[in-house]
Amino acid sequence: MKNLYRVLLLAILCLTVLTSCSEPPKPKDAIKKYMILWEKQDFESMYDMLDSKSQKQIAKKDFIKRYKDIYGGIEAANLSLKSAEKAKQEEDEKAKFAYSVKMDTLAGPIQYKHEVNMKLEEEGDSEAWKIEWNPSHIFPQMEEGDKISASTISPKRGAILDQKGDPLAFNGTAYEVSIVPKELPEDQSKTIVPLAKMLGMTPEEIQAKLDQPWVKPEYSVPIKKMETNNPKIHDAVALEGVKSPKVETRIYPLREAAAHLTGYIGPVNAEELEKLKGKGYTAQDWVGKAGLEQVYEEQLRGSAGGVIKILTAEKEEKAVLAENEVVNGKDVKTTINNEVQNSIYAQLKGDVGTASAIHPKTGEVLALVNSPSYNPNDYTLGLSDALQKKWADDPENPKMNRFKYTYAPGSTLKPLTAAIGLENGTLNPSDVMNVKGKTWQQDKSWGNYTVTRVSAVPNVDLEKALIYSDNIYFAQAALEIGQEKFVSGLKAFGFGEELPVSFPFSQSSIGEDGMSEVQLADSGYGQGKIQMSALHLGIAYTPFLNDGNLITPKLDQDKPGSAIWKANVISAETVKIIRDDLTKVVSSPNGTAHEAYMAKLPLAGKTGTAELKASKEDKNGKELGWFVAYNNEDPSLLVTMMIEDVKGRGGSHYLVPKVKKVFEENLQ
């Protein structure tokens, strides 16, 4: 018993010593902890550090909500806090510290210095320094009852212009068809049903807008916009309860002809809003969703203005905490030519395909066209569920941007194969290939596979091979060049690289990770693993018009840069040989593009047909038709057109008159 007593006594003595020797809490440690929590916006833990009086004055949930609402409303970011190392004033149970706050907001940076009082309070069996909180901690000018007002001013969006300054996209006006619920007839269907038909909507879609939580009987509820030249607007406003004030809206004057080029804007969604945090966007803003609207969003958008104020309980302005002026978006002047864009679309319309047009001497992109297409104005005027479903269900996929993707170029690649062979010394333009019949194979190792040509011309040199578009000649040419030099030659024309242009295009590819002998042969005439975009194919012809230099594609009129992408891709001698032969592809009666011949407007170029087969044995694959053409005397326009599924429609011959028409409309 005595031993137990001694052990307890010793334990009590040790505890007493430890308690008396432990350091008392320091206010500077507490304030530093509080600042760290504040910087992390851990408002719940901040509240736990408030003194008892402060916690009686404001409930925890209200404290957390106040900070979250204010910081969320002003879009506070990059919050930084720092407290003084030493107390400004310190007594036994009281202390005062200076601190500073910095943050970015929707109206610009805010920074301030302030002071916080602290109090030593009991906390369980110990003591802790607590914060004497009041609203001035949020902002020094704030008092109880004050509110924070934060507002943004959206900038005016810049226009997208063609090379002449004509608009591709601009801020115009439209009629906003609206309904005032209290002004509807007793039988609301008498207005809603006919209006839905006029607007291409369902009555249910209109009713859903009228049933939104914010709607009141006297409010004007926007339903959909209508273009100012739409004659249906008169019938719409004749219905009871319907109004049509004019409002600003984004207009795309070329409509379907340039939809995939211009893209469109739409309401910003939650995911986009998160990515754009800190850039002045609000849930009410619109943002570029596709095309040039998306590519040049930052330039077109400008910078939102904003102001953050403290208001009294009576909503009177007490102080301005931050303010920045709105900076309107800048116009984007492109190299596009509206007339050429419309002209090409008119020729493509009704088919599935794509086309590009460039100025082959400067690299200026004059047109980028797709068919089928859609009307981008439907996005800014109001897209109905029915139209969205129609586009989604269309097997021809009008929303697909075909001009940015790559395809097998077929025989339009043959001039490049010839140029590579000439540069490597494996091809002599005067050498004659003697192959009888329409099929050929290297040897029996090819099995049943053969290269097939259209015309059985037995004696073929380079000129005839291009005029007749002889697949066998160019298959043999590729095999003579060899895979390594063939791949290297194509890379000199920009294969495997991103096009140096502002719009995102898929890279043209070769399949250099390994080609069989058959694939190399097929690649020589644009099949195999070769894939090109229409724009790159057009650019690849520019060395034939620029002393062997590959020209840089240019879409932004004001963007500086070198006109030459790759210098001296081919020699002057090669240029002359290929250029003369491409002229004869059109001028010769036997040329595959002879239908494009015009004495007063001489063209040169190359047709091509690419077979899309699931396997070598596939006899029912679709065919892509191609035609690349330029004017010989005035090389200011080079057009590359591709149309899908031309099998049974004349192959590439189906395109020749279409491209010819584009030149007639734009150069004569």
TrEMBL record:
Q: Which Pfam families match?
A: MecA_N (PF05223), PBP_dimer (PF03717), Transpeptidase (PF00905)
Boundaries of every NTF2-like N-terminal transpeptidase domain copy: 26-146
Protein origin, superkingdom: Bacteria
InterPro entries membership = Beta-lactam/transpept, Beta-lactam/transpept-like, MecA_N, NTF2-like_dom_sf, PBP_dimer, PBP_dimer_sf, PCN-bd_Tpept
Keyword Transcription regulation on this protein?
Answer: no
What are the boundaries of the signal sequence? Answer: 1-22
Query: Which UniProt keywords are listed?
Result: Membrane, Signal
**Subcellular location(s) of the protein:** Membrane
Residue ranges annotated for the Penicillin-binding protein dimerisation domain, each copy included? 153-308
Q: Where is the Penicillin-binding protein transpeptidase domain?
A: 353-663
Q: What family does the entry list? A: Belongs to the transpeptidase family.
Protein name as it appears in the record: Penicillin-binding transpeptidase domain-containing protein
Q: Which organism is it from?
A: Fictibacillus barbaricus
